[in-house]
Amino acid sequence: MLKKEIEVLQNSLTNLSAVRQSLENQLAKNKASFEATLAKNNQLIDTQRQQIAQLNDHIKK
User: Fold this and answer.
1) How many angstroms from the chain centroid is the CA of residue 21?
2) What does the pLDDT profile of the chain (61 residues) look like in tens digits?
3) CA angle at residue 15 from 14 to 20, to 5 degrees?
4) What is the value of pTM for the model shown?
């Protein structure tokens, strides 16, 4: 009986390890996607700031 319980626990541990790895992989993908989106947003912000500055210059002239 003890041997069967050990096998069940080992199988559970193996399954949990696989799920953990899958979650780590998904988290890494999500992080990469977030960082790419953040970089694009920062670039858009910089572009908009430049456009605002140009418009302000035109208004002042």
Assistant:
1) 15
2) 899 999 999 999 999 999 999 999 999 999 999 999 999 999 999 999 999 999 999 998 7
3) 100
4) 0.70
